[in-house]
Design brief:
Length: about 325
């Protein structure tokens, strides 16, 4: 197998092609021939420093895997081999899922991944590999935000900050088209207002046209506020919540964001979607049914991962960047 990997954690270390022995799956594992792998901000944040990089290095030290550092979570492909105790999958089946560093696994920037069976989901025939390869983290994160902390349902309202980004786009669609929210408000730039409305938002707010939280206030209170953009004070978001409402910070890994979790009455939390079969299945079903659309902004060969990271770091993409391994 081959992968695009870091040879060390040294700052500025490039991602280069490495050749590795193709691993055999253990009892509860499945080996997948990767067709597409998505790029997420968490990938390049692990290279840039800060809490995510520190956490990744600590986990790798104690959990492995050894050798080059292969980043990436999202992937879609075809089952190549199934461990003796891995149930629910057959060789040749189309699947998608996510890797897990804390389980001692290599990432998805490779032509082959080995993961546990509970990190996979069968991929419906009408969902292409490139779309599935880019929907794991954003899909699971958006699904968790709208269903697991204060479930959105008819009669409830949702506010999505950063609604034109990867997670934000799916959060808007899940809230409105899957969970049938009474009202969904999305905050974005002026150029993306029509995009966000097209995703199902009842109201799209231009953050440059005045304080976005003050603009949103007239449409609240909200049962769920999902902050996909960062930079919003937790106390101001919590002030817009309905009774029992929840403020969700997507990948809020800064010290300031983490501190919000411990502020009474404990209505803020930071998440990054953890792929499980149940969550993956819910997202796949919504995409297959046409309720949710995954916007792919760029498709690049796996070898061009450095260019993909540079694009992602501009924060100007309104869709996913997907790396094609085959």
């Amino acid at each position: 197998m081959y992968a695009m990997a870091l040879r060390s954690w040294k700052k500025g270390e490039p991602l280069t092609r490495v050749e590795l022995p193709t691993p055999e799956p253990r009892a509860r594992e499945v080996r997948v021939a990767v067709h597409a792998a998505g790029v997420n901000p968490v990938d390049w944040k692990m290279r840039a420093g800060g809490p995510l990089r520190l956490a990744a290095r600590v986990i790798r030290t104690f959990r492995g895997p050894r050798g080059p550092v292969i980043l990436g979570v999202d992937f879609a492909g075809v089952v190549e081999a199934v461990g003796a105790r891995a149930t629910g999958f057959t060789v040749g089946e189309r699947v998608y899922g996510g890797t897990n560093f804390s389980r001692g696994q290599h990432g998805s920037y490779a032509d082959t991944v080995v993961v546990r069976a509970d990190q996979l989901c069968p991929l419906p025939d009408n969902v292409p590999f490139d779309v599935a390869g880019g929907m794991t983290v954003i899909g699971v994160t958006a699904w968790m935000s709208m269903t697991e902390y204060r479930p959105i349902e008819p009669g409830r309202r949702a506010l999505v900050l950063g609604a034109s980004g990867g997670v934000g786009q799916l959060a808007v669609q899940i809230a409105k088209r899957v969970r049938n929210a009474d009202l969904v408000v999305g905050v974005c730039s002026a150029k993306n207002v029509e995009l966000v409305r097209g995703l199902g938002a009842d109201v799209a707010i231009d953050y440059a046209a005045g304080d976005p939280l003050e603009q949103a206030r007239e449409h609240g209170p909200f049962d769920v506020i999902v902050d996909c953009a960062g930079g919003y004070r937790g106390s101001r978001c919590r002030a817009l919540l309905a009774k029992g409402g929840r403020h969700v910070m997507v990948a809020g890994d800064s010290p300031g964001a983490m501190a919000q979790i411990f502020v009474p009455p404990f209505r803020s939390r930071s998440i990054l979607g953890t792929p499980t079969r149940k969550r993956l299945q819910a997202v796949a079903d919504a995409v297959a049914a046409g309720q949710v659309t995954v916007n792919i902004a760029e498709r690049l060969p796996l070898a061009d991962v450095e260019a993909a990271h540079a694009m992602s770091q501009t924060h100007r993409m309104t869709g996913k960047i997907v790396l094609l391994a085959r």
